[in-house]
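### Sample
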Amino acid sequence: MSVKGKLNSIIREFKNKDEQGIHANDAKKRNLRLILQLGLSFGYKGLSMFLSFAIVPLSIHLLGSNEYGLWLTIFSLVNFFLFFDLGLGNGLKNKITIALANNNTEDVKRYISTGYIVFASLSLFLILILVLVVKLAKIQSILTIGDIASNDVERAILTIGITIIISFTLNFVYNIAASMQNISFSNLGMVLNNLITVVILIFFNVFKVRATINLMSQVTAVSLIISMVTANFIFFKKNPNLIPSIKYFRSDYLMNILKLSFGFFIVQIQVIVISFTDTIIINKYLGNIEVTKYNLIYKLFNAVIVLLSLISMPLWTVFTEAFEKKDNDWIRNVFKRFNYFVLGVAVVFTLIGVFIDQILFVWVQKEYQIPVLLISGMVIYHVLYAWNYNYSVFLNSVSAIKEQLPYLVFTIIANVPLCIYFIKLGLGSAGVIIASAVCILPFSIYGPYLAYKKIKLNKAV
């Protein structure tokens, strides 16, 4: 080998060692940040979950099982307005994370200001659309409302619908905090929201206030608005340099965001179709009592998924950073540990299924007849969901949406017809969760395959 060749070889060796050292140092810092966020998230989310579980029996006691089922259906119906977020929140989160990883403060300010202005404009437009739709539509033809006055239902839909639309703008602060790897901040907001709701509902129960659907929507609206405004105040008081300003708005940045956000829009449609159509379909075909029973069971199983998300969601921005820095070994190790964790989660789901009657009675102080088929469907669906979750977070964090489109489109098209078909077969509400399990099953294979393929192609140049 020539002197020049030896010199180049030595330089490459030092460069490789230097890169390995940087990766090791980055991984150590990343792990420390992750552990801190996990600790805070578990604390806040644990308290938030405790409060959310307290809300259920308080609400059932005030409204009764039938009216509570209608309230859940209304809440699911207005959540369809989340479609119109267009995926901008997650698209902006990824862009801000990348800008922060590259220490580009000016880009961070531009993305934040552009995001707030776009969300505020979108919210005003959607409020007008909501008012027109509610005034023109016949609520009785969409929902099973029984003997509840349609005017009360309309007012409830408007109140909670407008609140959710406003949350497009106010909730953006949680995306910004997450991009700064402060995912626990959103959990703190949920604690405040649930705490306000619990205090109001306890007051109603103690003083025998006659609760209605409309009153419940007002309670929810007040709690959400106060918690979101407080979160924005706290965040921007700590980060005054990031306060949005019209001078940082960039229309060219908006087009850049929209290209990325379209994929997240499709992801959101899939999530909403899977998560929120269930209640509406059960209300229409089986009645409000079945809605209440289904959602009680779903909430118990979903509590484990929420705890799972405490581990996975902080990984979103950490995955983005690690992928950007091509730290592929760290990502593979996270996948391996998470897969073992899911096995333990499957055991927890099985135990919930076995003791479901006892858990329900202790929780809501009422006995419900829960079919074995519904419990089995819940176990299968949530095990599949838990397995898919981490791979989904990774793929979304690296904006691998285009590759997921075939699966997402299949789920969006197939879910509702399958739910209705299984109900008509006589499976009852169990048919709804079984249909959802069938729809997410393909991703349990395709998701891991796609994730490892992305890592393999993510080589240092």
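Residues 29-457 form one domain. This sample (Polysaccharide biosynthesis protein) is used throughout the tutorial notebook.
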